[in-house]
């Protein structure tokens, strides 16, 4: 009954990147005839290059170029044969030099992505478990996904949260053999580090713990012989620690390298590590360049290169500190992140910097949360100190202007990153000429304005919202105790420009996840009822559906009002300390989507809404005649033959005894409905329904003996919308009486009798509702989170054991 369309994470990513592409921020092309590393030409503009991850500048070193060219001349452009059979002559020399460099056995792979796909499924056994730092590189997370089809538990934890890691180790220790924790050495967005030494201490405390580091951003610029950040934190490489380095990026060539002191792991990977066997080996040119780079790493010259980069890092850190620019993580890595918070501010600033001859990357979702957008600046030895000075001057010139132009501020950026950034001067808000009014209860809003603007659909009229307040305020159970806010923005003539309401409540994280995910989680919730739940601030509520936001589209300040509302919601979410903000239910081509996304929200697909429209135009004859030919066949087969088996009554007020019976039937339906997984509503909600003037009950019974078959709980909106909101059924009689289809049809008959204009059938069971004439309306929501953990965790759960 509850088959619904679910959002796919990749669809969300596609929408975000498509917008960034339209802004001219990504999918750009370099136009240079020749690269120097210092300058990059984009859209005809020569820009100082502050997006280079070749931190030491070795990719432009003449010795590496010569090594690559000589290898091509001697061995060709490629050696098209699996390395398992035979490797080309240069491989042996490279392996020898890398083993000297790392002082441990190494395995060379085509790149780090294929390397993780080779190593992780090989070393992680079926009796093991995997824990991922949620900021570990995508290539590691992708390889770990392959383990789940083998029944290996894979879990995410929040970034660098060692306390939670230890609690998980304790929980898993009696159930699995090895516990693998996978992390980056240096994280590619903020430039912060893994707590390597603390993790080693944890592995000594718990011998089951094995550590797997992707250190591609820590290579070459750190450590003896440039062996990388992780190796620089180790006296020796323990057998329970695997480290991936890179031969590209700072190393200047191509490929990646696994460092492994465990002989058993080493031989297993070497003998059969997936892509190592079935993928082509590194091209001779890449190996030739890597050999030349390895020689530099094994010489004292590497320390001169490291010192040169360090002087630039120290200089930039000093300049940023003096300029009081909002650096998110201050450390000694060559990766810097200056927060803008809102995507709109990031787009604006990056484009301004390009106009001034500076190229930087923009940190975007999904690499960072949408409201943690910012400039990702990388330093390399190609950057002159004068280039850095120019960058700082332009940041000082344009940063605050970019915030102001996009209705942002430093204090707002600070809230997004949970840091304290002070505005150089008060944020210019005085030109709004709009007044935001907030109310704690629907009773304080203007009855006429509310009902005529926002209250015309679903249960959004004052009567419906008063019912919600009575049912979900000051309730004992925390999942049923909601907070309400009503907001309207008016102009100087007190004319409403915008109206909406919000609720804060406890949601199940898997509410919109596939039923298989919810089914598994509900088993776990038998022991932990609040497992995988979060406090959420939502436009509208869990009980309502439809357009929860009224905008006066004709008003000249409507765009300003929407921006003001979004800032208000952001502050409210911060004050109430929620984990997620959800704005729902919008049409797919919603006019104001870009403004919402620019304010740090990501779009996700919602289940389709089922609406029977223009019902008032279908009153002339029997409803059957308004159905399509195909739907008429369905009616003749699945509904009409059962009509004489049932009786239907509509009750306006029912006894407490009967409402308890109806509630039991609702519980039967709820227990089987995992497609839209919410908390079960308490009996008090139904007790409030039974005497409420806008609620009525369509009761279905068997003709022969009066057995109660099903119940439809329906709300009547004064404006002509009928809402069959909830349903209860006795599943013993479902097929014999076609109870669900009968209740849908009886809802239509009742709405016709009341001369209703439309029926809001809600989400789920789209096929059945469409066969009775309902239209499916695609919907989307906009989501904002403090970090991507919840989103990534749910995506990780899509394929369960």
UniProtKB/TrEMBL annotation:
The entry's keywords: Aminotransferase, Transferase
Required cofactor names: pyridoxal 5'-phosphate
Domain Aminotransferase class I/classII large, residue spans: 69-384
Molecular function via GO: transaminase activity
Organism: Leeuwenhoekiella parthenopeia
Record-linked InterPro entries: Acyl_CoA_acyltransferase, Aminotransferase_I/II_large, AON_synthase_class-II, PyrdxlP-dep_Trfase, PyrdxlP-dep_Trfase_major, PyrdxlP-dep_Trfase_small
Domain of life, source organism: Bacteria
Pfam families: Aminotran_1_2
Presence of keyword S-adenosyl-L-methionine: no
Protein's UniProt name: Bifunctional aminotransferase class I/II-fold pyridoxal phosphate-dependent enzyme/GNAT family N-acetyltransferase
